[in-house]
Structure formats: C-alpha cells, structure tokens
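dude i think i finally got it to work??
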Amino acid sequence: MFDTWCTLLQRLPQAVLWLLEWNSQVRSNIVQQAARRGIDPARIVWAPKLQPAAHMARLQQADLFIDTWPCNAHTTASDALWAAVPVVTFTGETFASRVATSLLHAVGLSELACTDRDLYVATIEALAADAPRRAALRARLGAARKDSPLFDSQRTTRDIETLYERMFERHCQGLDPDHHRA
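look at this
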C-alpha cells in the first residue's frame, strides 16, 4: 500500500500525503521509508489529533481521501464523506476490507470503490487531474448528507427497531429465526 502511495506521489508532483500524527515512531519510520522511495519528506503532511469539530473543519480542506488496505477506513471514511471529501477505496474480500465500499454505496458513489490496485491508482490519478469532477463529487456528497441512509440516524433507528420487533414477534410465535429487511 505504501509503495502504491509513493508511486502516486511520484506521478502527481502537486500532491501531498496527509497522515494523522499519533505516534512519533510511526512518523520517523514513514519519513524514512518515503525518502528511500524518492519522496521528499516535506510532501508528507502530519496532522495532529484534534477535537472532533476542529478535525471535521480541517478534513474539509482535503481534495481526496485515499483509503488503506487490506483494512479500510471505517469511522475515518465516514468522517471524510460527511466532510464532502471523496473517498477512493480498494475493495477486498474481508469485512475489514469492504467497509469503505459499503459506505460509498450508501452515499451513491460506488464508482469510487475499486476492485484492484490498477483501478485504484487510475481512479486517484484521474481525480487528481480533474478539479471539476472532484467538485461535482463534493456536491453529491453535500446532497447525500440530507438524503443518504448513511447519515440518517433517525431512519436507521426506526428501521432497526422495526427489525427487532419483527424478530421478537417471531420468537413469541415460536418460529425459527429468519432473514429480515427493513
């Protein structure tokens, strides 16, 4: 994954890699590994931990969120989508490697869920070169805040309560568990 990110930095000279600064050892190791791959350490921007409101305000300044694999971002990808930052992910086979894909489906941006490394790289490169498309994606994400199931906590709460009621009714009737949909 880091090799892929460094390849992207080499191909996109205007890009920076923006990472959470949560551990000084991680920082020194990443800077060292980036330098070994020919990446100027100044192109890695370190973001200290912030309170949630400040973090969300800062996150809105990003052009693109490139996801990790084999473990995808979970809450962090949700935060990026809420901040109207397009997320590009690489879909894997396990739950942990499919979370961001599910989030993208929920907000109507399935085209940003890539099925292989080459598509992941091509999608990131294409978006990096296309400010109008990034702006359109941001607008779609802004609209998704109002009508996407991902951001509709009241709807999700009602749906899950309805499912629990159906499951309890089946139990009271002596029926075996079964699949249910909201």
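DSSP finds eight helices and five strands in the chain.
im so relieved honestly
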